[in-house]
Amino acid sequence: MIFRQFFEPVSCTYTYLLASRHAGEALIIDPVKESTSEYLAAIQELDLRLVQAIDTHTHADHVTALGDLRDLTGCVTLMGERSRAECVSRHVRDGERLSVDGLILEARYTPGHTDESFSFVLDPEAPSAVFTGDALLIGGSGRTDFQGGDAHRSWHSIVGRLLTLPDATLIYPAHDYQGRTSSTVGREKAFNPRIAGKTEQEYVEIMNNLNLPTPRLMDVAIPANLACGKS
Ligand code: FE
């Protein structure tokens, strides 16, 4: 399998390019508009054909590359069924499987950070990795104070829908602010300070008292992303 993890330093966003083989079809998860040329260079270098571009949720901190990638490569754009982005060509349901050249991803509805967040499990028959967007971060979780966020739902998504995957499943989040590139289900169960040894009520307390500043780009990014980054 071909796997590339890209890092966009302004918003600390991770983007993932996946393909089953050299010269095959590829998909990309959570691409950032400013990095589009970097993705295209990698796609060309590996002789891939991009067929799907996925956003895990409507990002508030950066503008998506979905629209640009669609225009430049003809790929299908895809989000979860609760997304209000009318521009995407396909909305996936919970449990639906995406198949690209032998690569299989299962869409899993994981609300809480937003009310429309999805995660994607690679190799659902024997999970090897999960792309969690901001539903679950390394040693943290995505804020729950806007875009239909809800700390109770976040807890249930994390504890009931992500950390129920096998312990060795790799976790690839949409962000990390400390340079960590992946984790595992087992590690997050044992060490995520918001989750390990905590009750739902304790988690909700933590999330409701984060007092985070509003993302700098939020007023630009959300409307732009509802138009796939094209407005
Ligand atoms: Fe987010």
Keywords, separated by commas or semicolons:
single chain, 231 residues, alpha/beta, Metallo-beta-lactamase, Chain A, six-stranded mixed sheet, 12 strands, 26% strand, globular, binds fe (iii) ion
How would you describe this structure to a colleague?
- The chain is built from six helices and twelve strands.
- With 231 residues, the chain is an alpha/beta fold.
- The chain has one domain (2-211): Metallo-beta-lactamase, Chain A, CATH 3.60.15.
- It has a six-stranded mixed β-sheet with strand order 1-2-3-4-5-6.
- A hairpin with a 6-residue loop joins β9 (118-122) and β10.
- The mean pLDDT is 97.
- The chain binds fe (iii) ion.
- Residues 57, 59-60, 113, 134, 142 line the site of fe (iii) ion.
* Percent helix range: 10-25%
* Order of neighbouring strands in the sheet with most strands: 1-2-3-4-5-6
The termini sit apart by 35 Å
Largest sheet: 6 strands, mixed
Q: Based on Cα principal axes, name the global outline.
A: globular
CATH structural fold name: Metallo-beta-lactamase, Chain A
Proportion of beta-strand residues: 25-35%
CATH class (first level) name: Alpha Beta
Rg measurement, Å: 16 Å
Number of strands: 12
Low-confidence stretches: none
The secondary-structure element order is EEEHEHEEEEEEHEEHHH
- The CATH superfamily name is Ribonuclease Z/Hydroxyacylglutathione hydrolase-like
What does the average pLDDT come to?
A: 97
What is the number of independent domains? Answer: 1
Entry summary:
The chain has six helices and twelve strands. It has helices at 36-45, 66-73, 151-162, 185-191, 200-208, 218-226; strands at residues 2-8, 13-19, 25-29, 49-54, 76-80, 90-92, 97-100, 103-109, 118-122, 129-133, 170-173, 183-184.
